[in-house]
Amino acid sequence: MRRFEVRKDYILVSVTVLVFAISSAFSLYQVNRASVTLAHEYPLAIWTIEQFQNEHKSLLHALELHTAGVENRDEVLQAFEILWNRATVVLDGYEASFARESLGAQELATGVLNVLKRYDAKVQAIPDSGAPAVSSDVFVALSKFKDPIHELNIRNFHDRDAVYGLSGFSEHLRAAGIAFFGLVVSGLVLVVMLIRQFRASHQLALHDSLTGLANRRYFMDHLEQIILRAERYDESFAVYLIDLNEFKPINDKYGHLFGDHVLRVFAQRLSNCVRRVDIASRLGGDEFAVIQYPVKEAREVPAMSDRLHDGLAGPVSSKSLSTDVTHSMGVALYPLDGRTAEELLYAADMKMYGAKKVHKRRLKSICSSLQVGN
Question: Residues 170-200: pLDDT tens digits?
């Protein structure tokens, strides 16, 4: 059944691509002379400037609502960070190169970014709602750019007619209307299928297939991002490395199927122990990791450690098989134990290794006691 479904998908893709190719060939022949006037950078510049204006308006609106006590600080901070990122794209991004060179967007983006940087600390410190002193200052400073950005967007839109040659383009579109209908329909089907395939591939690329947890790649990417954010906002977070004790003997004694079941149960317990904002990951084999972000108080780390120790402990059963599962854990705190991913993982690994040595000594002592008793 599975093979039949796969073959059916291949047939549908093949037919879609064939219709798409025929429609495209006919349509491109009709609109070829008009399409040569389309600049590769200009559509990106149009979109970038429109987004820049929309996000500037969004931040002004969020500041007004926050001053009135309608919105809380999270909406303001989100709009603030989005506009910051957009201004950076306008200054440095490839998609805005035309806007910088021909439309004068660089000066406006620089001015907006300078205001955001100047008020960054104040905005990050605003209360949950109603801070007229801060909100009004930022609002006034950013309002100065409202008209220039609007004029830039209007000029951008008017220039588009000249660049695109809309009159000539529309004549060719009418002549190729039927062909474009087939192009759009087949293109939509193809896009839907590609999106579904992309989602499936994205899930497989960033998550462990056995446990469903984030994989090592996902973990490392987010660890690097969290380090940058923590450094920017002077925050702390914790990295936990967790390793199952004596997992190889479990595989050897009960088989790999039961070993996989142990890993899945352990992963589910791990997911139940962490918050939604934390990241639980399987790094590989029987090694797991957690990022606790942010850590605002020192007592949060031992509290999480206790919750992990309690939540991960206990036997694992499947049908007639059952075994106790124990673990060793090491914790590294940013920036106390390191400021890079390598330093933090090394510190956590060393602490986990120390915990594993203690477990082995305890296990050896118990075995010795049992032998003496016999």
Answer: 455 455 555 555 655 666 566 666 656 656 5
Give 300-346 pLDDT, tens digit per residue.
999 999 999 999 999 999 888 999 999 999 999 999 999 999 999 99
The amino acid present at 80, given as its one-letter code, is F
Q: Is the dihedral of CA 35, 38, 40, 43 positive or negative?
A: negative
Q: What residue has token string 């001015």?
A: 111
Q: What backbone torsions phi and psi does residue 39 show, to the nearest 5 degrees?
A: -85, 145
Query: Rounded CA gap, 345 and 239, in Å?
Result: 7
CA distances from 307 to 112, 244, 280 (A): 45, 16, 14
Residue 319, Ramachandran bin (φ over 0: left; ψ between -120 and 50: alpha; else beta)? left
Distance of CA 92 to the CA centre of its chain: 21
Share of the chain above pLDDT 70, in %: 66
Domain 42-164 fold is de novo design (two linked rop proteins) (1.20.1440)
CA distance 243 to 308: 12
Question: Which residue ranges make up each domain of the chain?
Answer: 2-37+166-206, 42-164, 216-373
Instruction: Say yes or no: domain 216-373 is CATH 3.30.70.270.
Output: yes
Q: Dump strand ranges (E) for the chain.
A: 237-244, 279-284, 287-292, 314-318, 321-325, 327-334
CA distance 95 to 131: 36
Q: What's the average model confidence in pLDDT over 353-361?
A: 82
Alpha-carbon distance of 96 to 208, in angstroms, equals 37
